[in-house]
Amino acid sequence: MAYIGMRKPQFAPISTPRVDGSAISYGTPIVLGPAVSANVTFDVADNPDYGDDIIQNNDKGVNGYSIALETNDISAAGRAACLGWKKVMSTVTTTNVDHYEVNDGAPPEGGLAYIRVKLPAQSSTRKYEAFFFHCVQCSSGGENASTKQKQITWNHPTINASGIGVYLDSSGEARYFDWMEFDTESAAQSWINGKFGYTPPSQ
Cα 51 to chain center, whole Å? Predict the structure, then answer.
């Protein structure tokens, strides 16, 4: 098996306050930009309980996770949606956006999703894995720029996301993300749309 691609990192802000034991409602998802990479790191508990000089029990549950997301570009709408950048209107007219402003406010909570492409071993047929992270808070990985030299250095924006456990039903289990494999990219995207509760407009 080989992972051969990644597509469509998407974010949708949570539209109503979260309530433990209830499903989350999201706003309209936005594709943040052309995907480059996503690295998920889990915070796993390690609390062994010893007895008779050996480990009797150990808590190896997931406490949370972080995502380092790299895209080829991030749209203004994507920055506003996932990073909380504020539109500041012109003082001359109310019809044009003057600029975006970064302040000390907390970024919004939201759902994050993307599609990973893989080629199973001894197969020429691609599979499409959909990842859906129920609740994250994002921050900018920084803004980089460099002058053009003899060779171009490609600079890509990055987003760092911290995962938040959520209680979606009465089971008492904290949920972090869902995963599903599909035969087509369109089927994977349809599943993600369903997780967001989003119905795309008809073409």
Answer: 41
* Domain range list for the chain: 2-79+109-196
- Do 117 and 126 meet the contact criterion of CB atoms below 8 Å apart? yes
CB 51 within 8 A of CB 23: no
Question: Residue 115 is encoded by which pair of tokens?
Answer: 């599609």
Decide if pLDDT at 91 tops 70: no
Sign for the pseudo-dihedral over CA of 185, 162, 175, 26: negative
Q: What is the pLDDT of residues 136-167, one digit of tens each?
A: 999 887 777 777 777 777 778 889 999 999 99
Give CA–CA dist 155/157, Å, rounded: 7
CA torsion, ordered 28, 181, 168, 13, to nearest 10 deg: -20
Average pLDDT of every residue of the chain: 87
In sequence order, the 6+-apart residues with CB closer than 8 A to the CB of 153 are 146
Q: According to the model, what pLDDT value does residue 154 have? A: 73
Q: Whole-model pTM?
A: 0.85
Identify each DSSP E strand in the chain by its residue range. Answer: 2-13, 30-31, 35-44, 47-51, 54-59, 62-71, 86-89, 97-101, 109-119, 127-140, 158-163, 177-182
